[in-house]
Amino acid sequence: MAMAAAVLLAVAAVVMVEVAAAATYTVGAPAGLWDMQTDYAEWVKTKTFHPGDNITFTYSPELHDVVEVTEAGYDACSSANNISAFRTGNDVVALAAVGTRYFLCGLTGHCGNGMKIRVDVVAGGTAPGPAPAASSTTTAASPVVSGFGSGLLVAVVTAAFW
């Protein structure tokens, strides 16, 4: 029974850390607008997207839309055969898995004038920069907690604790 409780506690901790680690990016921030003035290629260079993150497109629905397309659609600035389309003016897109996602404005001429963005979603452990050093604390009756570069904490309960 105690072992089942320990496993359940560890799983809950992992889920809470993963949810807490998710980020939401407003496309084009700091101005935060999906428009024809923003350099999206430059904006995306400063971001690292991971599964669980969200991107938000903010715009006037009378002037723009957001269309998710294939790589070929992105390269050709074509919203034909799109994957999905958004038209609310405040569209939140979940980045659920590793891979590349392509978005553009489907209104004539907008994509050609720079309203397109390529978002590369990478695994949690592949962020640029050095990983933080792992640390651990051990006592005869306390859990061992180790930190890993991905930000994930894993609790291992010692036999003496139970």
Structure description:
20% of the residues lie in helices and 26% in strands. The chain has helices at 2-21, 40-45, 71-76, and strands at 24-26, 53-58, 66-69, 84-86, 90-95, 99-104, 116-121, 144-147, 153-156. A 4-stranded antiparallel beta sheet has the order 4-3-6-7. Strands 1-2-5 form a 3-stranded mixed beta sheet, with no helix packed on it. A hairpin with a 5-residue loop joins strand 8 and strand 9 (153-156). The radius of gyration is 21 Å and the shape is globular. The N and C termini lie close together (10 Å).
Question: Summarize this, please?
Answer:
The chain is an alpha+beta fold and 162 residues long. It has helices spanning 2-21, 40-45, 71-76, and strands at 24-26, 53-58, 66-69, 84-86, 90-95, 99-104, 116-121, 144-147, 153-156. 19% of the residues are buried.
Feature tags:
162 residues; four-stranded antiparallel sheet; three-stranded mixed sheet; 20% helix
Assess the beta-strand content as a share of residues: 25-35%
- Kindly provide the radius of gyration, computed on alpha-carbon positions and rounded to a whole number of angstroms: 21 Å
Number of helical segments with 4 or more residues: 3
User: In order across it, which strands form the biggest sheet?
Assistant: 4-3-6-7
* Form type: globular
Low-confidence stretches: 3-20, 126-162
What's the average pLDDT?
75
Summarize the biggest pleated sheet. 4 strands, antiparallel
The amount of helix comes to: 10-25%
Supply the helix-strand structural class: alpha+beta
Let me know the number of strands. 9
What distance separates the N and C termini?
10 Å
Q: What is the N-to-C succession of helices and strands?
A: HEHEEHEEEEEE
